[in-house]
Amino acid sequence: MNTESRRRILITGMGILSPIGIGTEAFQASLMSGTSGIKKSELYEFLAAPDCCVAEVADFNDSTIKKEYLKQQRRSLKVMCREIQLGVASANLAMDDSGIDLEAVDSERFGIEFGANLMLSPPEVLYSACMASTEGTEFQYERWGSDGLPKMEPLWLLKYLPNMPACHIGIVMDARGPSNSITQAEASGNLVLGEAQRIIERDWADVMVAGVTGTRIHEVKSIHAKLWDELADSPEDFSKRSRPFDKERTGQVVGEAACSLLLEEKSHAEKRGAKVWGELLGTGASCVVGRDGVPDTRTSIANAIKLAFKRAGVEPGDIGHINAHGLGDSKLDVEEYQAIYDIFGDKATEVPVTALKSYFGNSGSACGIVEASGSLVGLKQGVIPATLNYETQDADCPLNVVRNEPQPTDNKLFLKISTTTFGQASASVVCGV
After folding, report:
1. Chain segment 49-64, per-residue pLDDT in tens
2. Does the predicted TM-score (pTM) go above 0.90?
3. Contact at 8 Å (CB) between 432 and 380?
4. What is the rounded distance in angstroms from the CA atom of residue 175 to the CA atom of residue 82?
């Protein structure tokens, strides 16, 4: 691995809010014990998800938000939808985990890079304005400006902008360096890591918060998921519904999560004696769509992996395990395997693979970094986390899926793959410790 010619980036803080635990200790304990976070929703009575089966952060509620996770930002809660709240809380946890003294950090060299979904208003927020613009059963577009918009809450726009997590975090932490927001659905996590890495390499910053927040658990978003995606509707045991790469898989489970990592230039981290979770070596991204508008997911994933390997200075044989996208979709899982085969050849059936959506479903933009963090906390224990619910190999995607129990490993290098259903793929190469 040729990393000596550029500034090296260490991961020195981790803040996680996930369906299997809030904070690294709870998250790690659930992964090591094989505990699923998929169950019937406690926060919503009705959702379009089959049987209201979701993976939600139920312990992140009105009480804990105000008293624990966002107590320093209580005055700003009125302009934060749930996704923004999750994202800001994850950055708070990452700072606590890192032990960094913000007073000692040059604020001009401290930046934010954050990924998020497009954020949608729940129906009750829009109801009065829509009714004011409706004649009978027909919405009158020409009446929106005069009759509808005045019915909206004054700070409505600020509450649902996907760039607001980075804004709130920057204000709270007095981070005055480079700041950017990325909204590329499931591909966002690796894109965030790549942009933050390049900012530090260019010597524009010494410290970056690289984070993601996302949800597919939402009155409107769950309808979109039901209409557009393959959602798991069996078996009856909710904890077994997310079955990446398994022959009996029936689709994805919608989820929510947020995760922030503190990325720090190596000498800066060493100077303050920081603990280290790992090192970010390189990322890659690609989008391939045919002239007919049909995504070529296989090619886009393979392209992203090639670019990540080139950036990281590694070869397929160096990789200790693959942290797969592993959606549980009947078609996409096969395309992911095919892309892995295109890169790894015959070794594609040998390299260990873990798929952590089996624990906490698909949280959209949040999934990439949350899942990568699963590998990092596992490697701290010298193991690759096991995939839940993998029982029968599918001949169309014959991967070496780690199952039943975490698998011991001495190889700390892993590949993280993420992709959207629209042909956007990203990958990162990370070395744990």
Report:
1. 999 999 999 999 999 9
2. yes
3. yes
4. 23
